[in-house]
Amino acid sequence: MPVSVVIxxxxxxxxxxxxxxxxxxxxxxxxxVLEALAAEFPVLGRRLRDERGALRRHVNVYVGGQDVRxxxxxxxxxxxxxxxxxxxxxxxx
Amino acid sequence: xxxxxxxxxxxTKKGLWLATSPDRRSWTLGEPQFLMQEIPSIGIDTRGGxxxxxxxxxxxxxxxxxxxxxxxxxxxxxxxxxxxVFPEGTDAALERIWQIRPDTERRSGVVWAGAEPISxxxxxxxGRTFALNRALWDHADKDQWGAGAGGAAAHTIVPDxxxxxxxxxAMSTGGVYRSTDAGASWTARNHGISAYFLPxxxxxxxxxxxxxxxxxxxxxxxxxxxxxxxxxxxxxTWVSIAEGLPADFGFVMLTHPRRGGTAWVVxxxxxxxxxxPGGHLAVHRTDDAGSTWRALDHGLPAVDYNTVLRDAAxxxxxxxxxxxxxxxxxxxxxxxxxxxxxxxVAARLPDVLCVRAAALPEGVGSSGADDGGPGx
Lengths: 93, 376
Hints:
The complex is a heterodimer of chains A (about 90) and B (about 375). Chain A has about 90 residues and is α+β, with helices and mostly antiparallel strands. Chain A has one domain: Beta-grasp domain (Ubiquitin-like (UB roll), Roll). Chain A has helices at about 30-40, 40-50; strands at about 5, 20-25, 60-65, 65, 85-90. In chain A, a hairpin with a 2-residue loop joins β3 and β4. By secondary structure, chain B is mainly β. Chain B is built from one helix and 29 strands. Chain B has one helix at about 135; strands spanning about 5-10, 15-20, 30, 40-45, 50-60, 65-70, 95-100, 110-115, 120-125, 130, 155-160, 165-170, 175-180, 185-190, 210-215, 220-225, 230, 240, 250, 255, 265, 265-270, 285, 295, 315, 325, 330-335, 345, 350-360. In chain B, β15 (about 210-215) and β16 (about 220-225) form a beta hairpin. Chain B is globular, with a radius of gyration of 19 Å. Residues about 365-375 of chain B have low confidence and may be disordered. The interface of A and B includes residues 12, 48, 54 and 56 of A.
């Protein structure tokens, strides 16, 4: 069962206009989900994580309604059928 | 649409504006692009008869990148793999592109970039992709480099006009570095430049240089964090040329593209008072390599307390040379006569971070610069 991913609409241009995805094989973690997305949409991948692979500071990822920074970070487990939400944080001036 | 012979690109805290003009008197300001994204660096590359606009874009949320347009901003491209990407093993991530510098006509395809964290990058494909200069990145002085208020960055790159092996780089803080082997090695060149904010005010390394520029006679000029300097020996030694200026603090240093000895600065009172003296913004020009200075303020407001940042000023290559600058209050001023008189081109934009202008090659510029769509 695939994992569904939702990204902010502001990032749709980096993903050929899409904001919702089905990721079939995400190797069980948020990192795996994001790597699968980046493989198909490299520009989107760079918007979400820097070249060290770290989640950008103002990009938040939720699994099961929980901010992964409060869980295991990119190692947070993602079970089949779960939804991964990518939301930009409240930041800026 | 009227043909546009001149392009003025304005990078702000919240987007990019392009303005075009047939005569540098009448300017048409386009709609904002990359709205809500910071534009700290712009390069306009008119070599080879085509105009490529390169823009450093930084989203507070989604990070920095470099994009380019070959149609005056109607469309933008970036390579999928990214333009400026720290290679594996550096354990670094790009924070911001501070400088995009097309090289000279004779080095076609070469574009330099300066970035935060302190790093210099070189493109040989016209600015599409850049490679990290490892000699500077791995430099032994690195632990002596620091961050100014805006961050730690290599903000200025000055490739020599004729000597393919000679390049100068300025970083804050760190100072001026010179390579005489095309970037294979770098040596600090700060003798004579004060760093009053350090225990040793005359160190080899650690100066807070704000901007450097070269003139066509081979001189270098530096606007420092307190201090305006000139070097006649490629940076080996620096002498003060601040006498005659109302203040020695500021961020801007511009040089004339064809006439040696001519340079422009925008003095601010001091590091503790980063406003123009008396709240009266003025450009100061020397035509004798810093021996004397003249205030130029015709057309500028009587009162303006806004700062002009290091890359928020530029010259074009037309005759006479155009001088342009923008303020953190969002005003942009243009002069078509080397600073003798200014007119306001834009007002109440977000903080202006970067301004670049160019005379466009023949046959370019008939399309508008006001219809582009922002990239993500």
